Amino acid sequence: DVDGTLTCAQRKQPSARVAGALEDLRRRGVTVVLATGRTLKACRSEVMGGFVPDYYVCINGALVAAADGRVLFHHPMSQEQFDTVLTLADREGCPVGFAFPESYYMYVGDEVYRPFYREVNGDMVTLRDGTDRTRHLEGLPYAAFGILPPDKLAAFQDPALGLHVSAFDEDVYDICQEGHTKATGAAALLERLGLRWEELVAV
Asked: What are the respective helix, strand and coil percentages of the chain, to the nearest 5?
């Protein structure tokens, strides 16, 4: 895991000691995987203390990639899921963005979400103003996220559409696809690598 494990509120990047420990594991022949809710770009070496893992399980399992960025497994949102989240964000007035491999794009409320993102993450390269609403025309996102007041949560949690909401911070939530988690992403990678669950250690 990255946020709250390799990094914390006081340290936006893994420390040199942590990055060194991960690299030492690789030298010993251990395959190291970052499993995170982050998009691929938000795990690049510059923000991981220079460390590059063997594989990435990103966006809560919806995207699995190799160290060089090659996508090994992916499951973008459906058009209906995307349209529903965007329509709700407009209707409810909630700042909402979407996670693509190369960046997060704020479709609604960019000016509201940006100060929060700067404080929590600090890596402003990854957050883009998407209010022109064109990025999804090149390919649908893998998840959504946003500032959702408690009375708006139910509107975004729609099992019939295969969407569920999980907390990231106070009033800030990820809107993910049902059936895709870090565990399902790890399972897909283990199968590809010919490894068993008994050979996996999660930190």
From this structure: 35, 25, 35
Is residue 33 classed as helix, strand or coil in its secondary structure?
strand
- CA dist list (Å): 30 to 21, 45, 177, 186: 12, 19, 30, 15
- Specify the pairing of strand 63-66 against strand 103-108: unpaired
Alpha-carbon separation of residue 64 from 97, 108, 182 (angstroms): 21, 27, 10
Query: Residue 109 and residue 133: Cα distance in Å, rounded?
Result: 12
pTM of the entire structure? 0.91
Q: Which range (23-37, 79-93, 147-161, 179-193) has the least confidence?
A: 147-161
Q: How far is CA 100 from the centre of its chain?
A: 9
Going from the C-alpha of 145 to that of each of 17, 54, 203, the distances in angstroms are 31, 27, 24
User: What does the pLDDT look like over 57-113, one tens digit per residue?
Assistant: 999 999 999 999 999 999 999 999 999 999 999 999 999 999 999 999 999 999 999
Predicted local confidence at residue 45, as pLDDT? 92
